[in-house]
Design goal:
Blueprint: E1 7-12, E2 15-20, E3 24-25, E4 30-31, H1 33-46, H2 52-73, H3 77-85, H4 89-102, H5 107-119, H6 123-135
Antiparallel strand pairs: 1-2, 3-4
């Protein structure tokens, strides 16, 4: 059974929780403390045995899962943009290439790869990626 719209499921021990996506904000998925505290109170009302520490561990798992889902939903673009913004353009390029091995017809990923390659000075490879993207639109 999948999570309702606006939520994703995280398993913590034998407990499965539907975590609201809006508990994280920004491209770095920073925890919104106010929403996290509200979610904690709601969770504690339903499951009073959950300690704050257990909840915090679950939130760390939730952030990891949220980032994974965002990357999956965007065809690798989400993570590659984060990597590039942190200065790891080579890692971002490798991440997109790995995605494109799995889904070689993803035109958006090809366009993003072209932008990154051009930004690193490899314009010839960047233009080839742009041309590949055009084939799949």
């Amino acid at each position: 059974m999948s999570a309702p719209e606006g939520y994703f499921t995280v398993v913590h021990g034998s407990l499965s929780l539907n975590v609201p996506r809006n508990i994280f904000k920004g491209s770095a998925a920073v925890l919104d403390e106010e929403r996290a505290n509200s979610f904690y109170e709601l969770t504690r009302a339903r499951y009073p045995w959950i300690s704050r520490n257990s909840f915090d561990v679950m939130l760390k798992k939730a952030r990891t899962e949220y980032l994974r889902l965002r990357d999956e939903e965007t065809g690798g673009i989400y993570t590659s943009r984060m990597m590039a913004s942190e200065g790891d353009k080579k890692g971002a390029i490798a991440h997109l290439r790995a995605h494109l091995e799995e889904d070689p017809e993803d035109s958006d990923a090809w366009m993003e790869l072209g932008k990154l390659l051009c930004a690193t000075g490899d314009t010839e490879a960047g233009y080839k990626a742009f041309n590949e993207a055009r084939k799949h639109y």
